[in-house]
Amino acid sequence: MAQALTRSQSELLVRLLGVTKRYPQPDNYDILVLDDITLDIWSGQFVALLGPSGSGKSTLLRIIAGLAKPSYGTVLYRGRPVDGPNPYAAMVFQSFALYPWLTVQQNVEIGLLAKGVPLRQRREKAARLISLIGLDGYEDAFPKELSGGMRQRVGFARALAVDPELLCMDEPFSALDFLTAENLRSELLDLWLEQKMPTKAILMVTHGIEEAVFMADRIIILSKNPARVIADLTVPLPYPRNRKAPEFLAWVDQVYKIVTGGEEEPEAVVQDLTEPRPAGAKLTPIPYGHPPMLTGLLELVADRGGRYDLYRLGTELLLEVDDLLPVTDAAELLGLAVVDEGDLIVTPLGRSFVEAPPAERRAIIRRQLVEIPLFRLIQRVLHTKANHRMGKDFFLDVLEGHFSPQEAERQLNAAINWGRYADLFHYDPDSEQLYWAEDQTEEVEA
Ligand code: ADP
Ligand code: MG
User: What is the mean pLDDT of residues 264-293?
Assistant: First the structure.
């Protein structure tokens, strides 16, 4: 249909060479977020950057837009090193990031003001964009008077006002309700395909597989811990795309397989964790998936013969891949299931788990947990202490030596969830202490 055929495909806009980003942590332990990312973005491309939460998508986008610097590696825009905010790029944020004390008109004008565009031109340009984006009549409104969808329209108008060559968007639809998001997606696609804006390339960060397949003609898939490019796909489906068409569904399925099966991280290898660890070994991250969700998921798949397509499972349970992955990760780490070719397959241990009464289920999980470094650490500490208690902060401190502060907190919360479920230890929210009670399991080797 109206695919952007006349837009030149021949200009190299962005070139990343070995871009690596580390964030320094307290006690000099760096976390590696982006690992050696090399890629080119050409004019004419609508690129989706797809990866799980926390994989480093926003970090990469900010580096490309010149809002952050890589630790190593080179970022070139039209062959020139990017040093500071890239004047050819504009950003649309998930949180809209509007100035609350400025009107719609003033918010849209802000980028033009920064570029020194004279007042009259600013007014005209902003008015035109406000109209283009469907906000006529709201010029003098303040952001707080607008709905989320209208605020994001202002976000788009503000970004487009500076005629960016490269439009960067960081999960621009994910804070909007379903219908509003769907409308805005179609409208943006329309502007892009009909070339109603001078933008030469779009780079959209998303964790939504369907969204990526619906909008982009190129999908770059990132792994997590650290982020590497695990796939770089060209989506040949013509626009407008039909979400129900078999070709569309086949693509979604294909991308789903890569996202769910593409992680070859050490923490997913269960066998490795049974080896004794040398002192000071790296803590491998544990997934956040919750015990009840894991149980439910395994029961469902076991009911369906022990093997089931993850994409269909996600759709049936109304779960986004971002919610589903932590649960399947947990199932894999605990040896209860494996993910293969986009299917979840229940292992023999997983089957005994599903068929066992609750107490035996806990015991199975317990035996698996004590093989995982973080649980070993917690166990060891609680057993060494005479009163079998230790403050949460102590473990947070240790974890912050291995993870970012937010990740450390999430890791500990996940550990507490699993530990309580399996009766490995308890948590007292009043004293913020983890503790082990004498009547608890003794299945602990030092
Ligand atoms: P995504 O956008 O894919 O969700 P981010 O790029 O926001 O991921 O973050 C990737 C990782 O980097 C996360 O583990 C996050 O905690 C960490 N991180 C992001 N910004 C900082 C920062 N300023 N300091 C330390 N760690 C950070
Ligand atoms: Mg992000």
Answer: 53
The percentage of residues in the chain with a pLDDT greater than 70, rounded to a whole number, is 91
How far does residue 109's CA lie from ligand 1's centre (Å)? Answer: 30
Alpha carbon nearest to ligand 1 atom 16, residue: 404
Average pLDDT of 332-356?
89
* 2 confidence band (pLDDT: 50, 70, 90): very low
Tell me which residue has its CA closest to atom 14 in ligand 1: 54
The pLDDT value given to residue 355: 92
Band the pLDDT of 427: cuts 50, 70, 90. very high
Q: How far is the CA of 37 from the centre of ligand 2 (A)?
A: 17
SS in 3 state form for the chain? CCCCCCCCCCCEEEEEEEEEEEECCHHHCCEEEEEEEEEEEECCCEEEEECCCCCCHHHHHHHHCCCCCCCEEEEEECCEECCCCCCCEEEECCCCCCCCCCCHHHHHHHHHHHCCCCHHHHHHHHHHHHHHCCCCCCCCCCHHHCCHHHHHHHHHHHHHHCCCCEEEEECCCCCCCHHHHHHHHHHHHHHHHCCCCCCCEEEEEECCHHHHHHHCCEEEEECCCCECEEEEEECCCCCCCCCCCHHHHHHHHHHHHHHHHCCCCHHHCHHHHCCCCCCCCCCCCCCCCCHHHHHHHHHHHHHCCCEEEHHHHHHHCCCCHHHHHHHHHHHHHCCCEEEECCEEEECHHHHHHHHCCHHHHHHHHHHHHCCCHHHHHHHHHHHHCCCCEEEHHHHHHHHHCCCCHHHHHHHHHHHHHHHHHCCCCEEECCCCEEECCCCCCCCCCC
d(CA 255, CA 339): 14
Among 50, 53, 59, 61, which is best to mutate for testing ligand 1, by the most ligand atoms less than 8 A from CB? 59
